[in-house]
Amino acid sequence: MRYFLHIGYNGYNYRGWQRQHKVLSIQEVLETNLSKLLKTKITCLGCGRTDAQVHASQYFFHMDVEKEWTFDLKFRLNKMLSEDIALFDIIPVEGYPHAQLSATSRTYNYYIHTYKDPFLFYLSAYYPLEELDFEKMSAAVKLLVGNNDFCAFCKSPDKNPSNICKISSAQLFTNKTKDKIRFQITSNRFLKGMVRIIVNKLIDVGTGELTVEEFESFLTLKSTPKTIIPAYPQGLYLSKVTYPFLNIPAKVDFSNSIDNKWIKV
Question: How much is the pTM?
Answer without folding.
Answer: 0.95
